[in-house]
Amino acid sequence: RSRLTDRFWRVQEVLKYARHFRGRKNRCYKLAVRSVRRAFVKSTKARRQKKRFLRALWITRIEAASLEHGLKYPAFISNLLKSQVELNRKMLADLAIYEPKTFKSLAALAQRRRQEGFLAALGDGKEPEGIFSRIVHHY
Amino acid sequence: VAKTSLTSPPWPEVKLPDPGEEAKHHAEVVQKVNRMIAAGQYGRLFAVVHFASKQWKVTSEDLIMMDNILEAECGDRIRMEKVLLVGADDFTLVGRPLLGKELVRVEATVIEKTESWPKINMRFWKRHNYQRKNIIRNPQTVLRINTIEIFPCLS
Fold first, then answer.
1. Degrees (nearest 5) of the Cα angle A71, A81, A119?
2. Would you list the domain boundaries of chain B?
3. Residue stretches of chain B with pLDDT short of 70
4. Would the CB atoms of B96 and A99 count as touching at under 8 Å?
5. Which of A28, A138, B103, B124 has its CA 20 to 30 A from that of B72?
């Protein structure tokens, strides 16, 4: 008659992943199977979400650092991109932590580009042709 | 024209410095940095390199691990060409977007080509008797950055 001889090792294969769990899930096979399955599924989904979380973290850090230099995050990023500096958010966050002088110079660059953009948007400062302005008084 | 809420823009008016004087100031700064590089008055250099579709902040004697295969044998010297930023303590050179190849030289050696730890991909639908378990091992390469060199050819 055929009997299962390696039941111990089959059970250990699952329990080895549950050794650091809390309660009876780390000892009893029936409970451990369910917990280990959920743990694997959660870890696969988390691998995709980790990228989202890290990007949000970098953005928060860059925002904090640029506010220290008097710029808001959208202004900083958009002006850096317009000046053709293609550092991604991970690098900007690392530079803000470990190279404060470099980050200050990047913030100054973005500020200067912002002011140049405002000047370009103003144009000549003359009125367009064929339009007259007058103030309407309501009585 | 009478002053309304729309006559002046909502941002504060800023005057940019004179372009001629600015150009002189820029040239002075460039000369100073060139002299500093030529004299070798910098400590440790760091660089931001674009490699394997990721950006890395790199110094010398650094280890880098990437999640893919490189077509180079172990022990090969590699020169990384897409350098975005180079900095030392007193100055930084920011590329728009890349710095020139005659300015910077980043050398690295391939140390190790291994596989990652076995990652487990599991899919499970409850009450449908559906579960799939897949163990995946990614190839990895480890590089050590040997040197970062800059040359005084700014203009």
1. 65
2. 19-150
3. 1
4. no
5. B103
